[in-house]
Write a structure and sequence with these properties.
By secondary structure, the protein is mostly beta strands. The chain has four helices and 29 strands. The chain has two domains: 278 residues, Neuraminidase; 85 residues, Rossmann fold, CATH 3.40.50.
């Protein structure tokens, strides 16, 4: 399977057609980005949902304008909360104590009954604020929700003029360009411990190869460069294995390899086109999409016959299996001529459409609370990253429209 030339491989071209909406999104990166002065009246990706009965009214403040703006941005993205000026259930006050410490003080109701006070330390005041906001979620949500604000993004953007991989905090702060390949980059994914990023790039051979990237040093190593198409790589929950799609032996098949290297092990054998492999939370199963449809299938990570998960939607792809809600799978579906997001119950295959967007909603990735996802919102002109509350359908853009960002993966320290 070693690459012997840069010639186009027939099955690879067929496989790429299977991911056309992903390629369309990449075309938008290179052809049609809105200028900053041409903001639409309503930002792409924004969907307000009236959740007065379900949302908790909170008042949020901080002792600096920058931290207050960040705290309010964070809580506006959370479907469990509603920012109010009065009549609040909780008052959340954030105080920067130093360049690396923030204290959160939580009181309840008009009587300002103390609930909690905690000092959080991080590598910056911004990161400490987000950690303190996560503490506030855990103390006030009433649903035992884990906070997601400290999640770290890795995503594809063309901010430099080329399709490159970037990392940032969840709200695009402390953004850092990680690659300078000058070539098409696709589907970056974090290792579970945040030490590595695996992604596909056309950098070296002009064909799609899989690379491992150290986000701290910028070191990039080839992980797979077999002949044909190499893409869709995902780490197992322990970070010890990688599942991916390779076409070097003909049709697109799922392979697994030790994350430290070594031989690949083929797990599927059929002519059907496959994509987007993803491990179950315990690493014992692999979830993937397969034609016709495509539909979602589950198989043992050791191999064997795949089992169709659901046929509720005619198109199901790009699935992500929650690490915290063990039976929750989010995926891209096609409804009424648009791509939307649905949550599927892994135990019985039953699904529910969770986005109702007047644009395409694709490429979902779970956040740490098992309720919200980061996804790509896309229209004819550009694409942005958004947070979706899968319980209410509320969608909040987290990247500006001119950034043309897509294909995000999230790691939570």
């Amino acid at each position: 399977m070693r690459r012997e030339s840069d010639e186009a491989i027939g099955p690879a071209a067929h496989f790429l057609r299977f991911s056309m909406h992903k390629l369309f999104a990449l075309v938008f990166l290179t052809t049609a980005v809105l200028p900053a002065t041409a903001q639409p009246k309503k930002q792409l990706g924004e969907i307000g949902v009236e959740v007065a009965n379900a949302a908790i009214g909170i008042r949020v403040s901080a002792n600096s304008p920058e931290l207050q703006a960040l705290a309010q941005t964070a809580f506006r993205s959370h479907g469990r909360y509603k920012l109010v000026g009065s009549g609040h259930s909780y008052d959340l006050k954030f105080t920067a104590l130093s360049a690396t410490q923030v204290r959160v003080d939580i009181t309840k109701g008009a009587a300002a009954t103390p609930v909690a006070s905690q000092v959080v330390t991080a590598n910056s005041a911004r990161n400490a604020l987000l950690r303190a906001a996560d503490v506030a979620v855990e103390k006030t949500s009433g649903l035992n929700l884990r906070g997601y604000f400290t999640g770290r993004l890795v995503f594809v953007s063309q901010r430099s003029g080329k399709s490159e991989v970037y990392s940032s905090d969840l709200f695009l702060g402390e953004a850092k360009q990680l690659t300078r390949d000058g070539a098409l980059a696709m589907t970056p994914r974090w290792a579970p411990d945040g030490s590595r990023i695996i992604y596909t790039s056309y950098f070296k051979s002009g064909a799609p190869d899989i690379y491992l990237l150290d986000p701290n040093t910028g070191r990039r190593d080839i992980f797979i460069n077999y002949r044909g198409t190499n893409m869709g790589a995902r780490f197992s929950p322990t970070g010890q294995q990688v599942a991916m799609i390779l076409t070097g032996e003909g049709s697109p098949e799922i392979y697994v390899r030790n994350a430290q290297g070594g031989p690949v092990s083929r797990k599927t054998r059929s002519e059907s086109v496959k994509s987007s492999p993803c491990f179950s939370p315990d690493g014992s199963q692999i979830l993937f999409a397969m034609e016709p449809g495509p539909q979602l299938y589950v198989m043992s990570a050791a191999g064997g016959s795949p089992r169709r998960l659901s046929s509720q939607f005619s198109y199901m792809a790009e699935a992500d299996w929650s690490r915290t809600e063990r039976n929750k799978i989010v995926c891209t579906v096609r409804v009424g001529g648009r791509y939307q997001l649905a949550v599927i119950d892994a135990s019985n295959g039953q699904g529910k459409q969770v986005s109702q967007a007047p644009f395409d909603a694709i490429e979902p990735s779970w956040l740490a609370d098992g309720r919200h996802v980061v996804y790509t919102a896309r229209d004819r002109r550009t694409s942005v990253l958004c947070i979706l509350d899968t319980d209410t359908g509320k969608s909040t853009p987290i990247t500006p429209v001119e950034s043309a960002a897509l294909q995000a993966s999230v790691w939570t320290p």
